[in-house]
Amino acid sequence: MAENISLKLTINERDIPRLLRHRFFREAPTPKRETLVSIYYDTRSLRLQTHGVSLRLRKQHSGWLQTVKYHDTTNDFDAPPGTWNANYFNRFDFSSIGDSALRDWLSRDKILNQIAPIFESNLRRTGWQIKPATDVALQVTLDRGSLVSSGRRAPFADLVIQLIEGSVGDLYSLAMQFADRVALAPMLHSKTERGCRLFLNTTTTPARADDFSVSAETMPLIAFRQIALNCLQHMQRNQAGAATTNDPEYIHQMRVATRRLRASVQLFKPLLPPSFADDIVAPLRELMHALGRVRDLDIVMTEIIGPVIADMPNDPALLALSAVITERQYQTRLEVMHALAQPAYGHLQLQAAALLHSSSFIAPPDHQSQATLSEFAQKQLQSLCARTLNHAARAHADEPNSLHRMRISIKRLRYAMEFFRAMMPAKASNKILQNLAATQEKLGKLNDLASAGAVLMHCAANDTNLRQAINLIGAWHGQRHADLLAEVADDIKRIEHLKLPRFD
Fold it and tell me: Quick check: 498 and 385 in contact, CB under 8 A?
């Protein structure tokens, strides 16, 4: 019997007709259709959601069905939530809940007396049973509807693919076939989470990387999977903002996510299956380059040209150069926004997730033959630290390439320490991470100044006035460049004496 596993995706309403023209839908038996009305409950401070609990009433025939779901993420993030159903007769009844601690917690007067309706879900559900091959069967469910709370309404379209017969690979294979046709994206938030956000009227903001690290008890390959999935989620949490707004921080955070993912692949490469690194990193390269082009132009405008114009607001050559860069910035951003809305982006996410849900990572073979995560982490960190010390010893202020190599080695060491932070003493590791981040930031500013020249010259082409503006910008930043070099020289001396903290 197949594993009880499903894949939850979001789809744009306008893409649904195109998806349903796929031959698997045309060849499937007549779909089952139903209308579902549900009311979700919580306290006004959302204590149930904070506790990992979802409580709803769903209209059924002449009555209501009470459903409690509980997801204890402290034990196993991949474990399905516990679910308990009971008929509702004008009062909540939690006696059927099999988890005694949860049952007692929900029955406390402090909780029970504060439970109230938070939002309502109205949807039309259509379900197909699809058989892509003789020994494969999957249930595909399309939910189209809206969430309503406090007079606010949020439409949604969700696609869920559930494995009935076959393997996890068959599940992702079908999803990627759909993703070849329309733009699909992994669903990051359940209906409960989205409804609570609507209730709170939460404004979407760029998402930074979580303070995430793996524990020493985790097997190395499973640890890599957790890290990589966290990076993919970080990327996806910023996709909508990057695709629909002009806030540069969304693109910056997507770029950070891709870099952290690439760093994790390099870190665990000795343990990864053959060709895995190329399979997961290669599809990211085009996206990384596109994000990098936008980010480079954003930096040129805000960090390089902006301060000079603020100091000399009436210089015509500067204003003309700014207009050229702004137009290039606008066009490059449009290209990225278009790319993020295309099927290829969702396919990339699904391909990466499919690799990470293969048997190599869900149940790695020969556990006894693997080094412990602590042993592996110490060995890798020592290697990265030695490389950083070597680059620091070879770094010179008058050799930009040597500073660039040092910056890259610091970044890789910093990411690795963040991934393994839970295994190191907090005080010592935090101090090292703060120093590494500060040095990396200064080296990054030096790199931005060095890279800006090429970007500006490309945009100016052969225009004499624009080239004069570039000379003016270079002269204006001369002292800043000298100050950064002096600060970095002191940082290099500190880096040369870097020692990793002992593992707990």
Answer: yes
Beta-bridge partners for 60: 63
- Per-residue pLDDT reduced to its tens digit, 383-399: 999 999 999 999 988 88
Q: How many CB atoms lie within 10 A of CB 441?
A: 11
Q: Which of 200, 229, 246 is the last residue of a domain?
A: 200
Q: Which residues, in sequence order, are CB contacts of 301 under 8 Å at separation 6+?
A: 322, 325, 326, 329
**Total domain count, the chain:** 3
Alpha carbons 123 and 145: distance in angstroms, whole number: 4
Residue 109 amino acid letter: D
CATH (domain of 244): 1.40.20.10
**Which of 166, 200, 234 is at the close of a domain?**
200
Q: What share of the chain is helix, strand, coil (3-state, %, to 5)?
A: 60, 20, 25
- Look at residues 375, 409, 167, 172 and name the one whose alpha carbon lies nearest to residue 271: 375
**For residue range 315-372, what is the model confidence (pLDDT) as tens digits?**
999 999 999 999 999 999 999 999 999 999 999 999 999 999 888 787 665 554 567 8
Predicted confidence band at 447 (pLDDT cuts at 50, 70, 90)? very high
427 lies in which domain range?
Answer: 373-499
Q: Measure Cα distances from 153 to 8, 126, 197, 203, 360 in Å.
A: 22, 22, 11, 14, 43
Quote the pTM value: 0.89
State both tokens at 476: 């204006």
Task: Note the Cα 111 to chain centre separation in Å.
Answer: 33
- 207 lies in a domain? no
398 and 324 fall within a common domain: no
Q: How many whole angstroms separate alpha carbon 202 and alpha carbon 193?
A: 11
